């Protein structure tokens, strides 16, 4: 079972142009900033957003291809979807909600409700079938929505921010349960999320969207070790620069230079982890190849570390201990010297 999609769609003034291939057995997480096109991609796959061009095929069966005049209606597509707000029918019982897809496909009421009961038991809600959605907790509603999506045995399962409506404590438990249910599902699985922890914990492959295009794709380790956008770098918590390398000196697009061991020649990305950025009140002696002056714009305490945002050429974020901040007497607006060893600059082709 494989999903092959070339999505070309327009939402207002926003254009979506995404090519995607997902095989059964993989959990693919789609990440991106707000407005990147994540939900529009899901809606296009489900048939809720008509394509302007491209093609959607599931295991070789074409669901939509405008050039060929093919468009299978949403209700006839072998797709299950869990919406961000779950969208349970408030006037139906929990069991009737789960049975809805089965009834829509022609199953008689009694067997549909019996099947719904089996799915409710599988998601840990064996005695909740007679309740109405309004009486459920957020975690229970999420499980009902998942059971409804899986009960019709879809070939493609789409999950649009399935944890977004949950509080932090519930999210941890439900993430574990959701991963278990996804592992038992034999079809194609696609997850949209804005939460990097959720993506890393659940996905085999990440697809990063920005401005309606795929900017980066790969395993979680590949994407996080070699970010190609400020969005991914911020998710991982590293400094990302882009520039042109010549004989180990990188001239940065945003101003300034960095020296990096083995940088080579050509257009490159350079990553500097904040923990490798050293701060001094006076110009340091010794061997750092990258030394420049900057100004502390903001100090952000995170657990046992302080992230210091520094304006300079280049601007950079350093991560130091609270003790180091006290020793430096560092506050917003203070001038400091910044040092990064050439061996701590990770360089790869742009």
Mean pLDDT reading: 91
Distance between the termini: 34 Å
Fraction of residues in H or I helices: 25-40%
Helices and strands, in order, run as EEEHEEEEHHHEHEHEEHHEEEEEEEEHEE
Indicate the proportion of strand residues: 35-45%
Widest sheet: strand ordering: 7-8-9-3-10-11
- The whole-angstrom Rg is 25 Å
CATH fold-level name of the largest domain: Rossmann fold
Total strand count, please?
21
Stretches where pLDDT falls below 50 for ≥5 residues?
Answer: none
What general form does the structure show? elongated
Describe this entry's structure for a reader.
The chain is an alpha+beta fold and 350 residues long. The strands form four sheets. The chain has a six-stranded mixed β-sheet, with helices on both faces. A five-stranded antiparallel β-sheet has the order 2-1-4-5-6, with helices on one face. A five-stranded antiparallel β-sheet has the order 14-13-12-15-21. Helices cover 26% and strands 36% of the residues. It is elongated. The chain has helices at residues 38-46, 94-104, 109-122, 138-151, 168-184, 196-202, 220-225, 230-236, 322-328; strands at 2-11, 14-23, 27-31, 53-58, 61-65, 70-71, 79-82, 156-160, 188-192, 205-210, 213-218, 239-246, 249-252, 257-259, 266-272, 278-280, 290-302, 305-312, 316-320, 335-340, 345-349. The protein is built from nine helices and 21 strands. The protein folds into two domains: 2-232, Rossmann fold (3-Layer(aba) Sandwich); 237-349, Beta Barrel (OB fold (Dihydrolipoamide Acetyltransferase, E2P)).
Characteristic key phrases:
350 residues, alpha+beta, Rossmann fold, OB fold (Dihydrolipoamide Acetyltransferase, E2P), 6-stranded mixed beta sheet, 26% helix
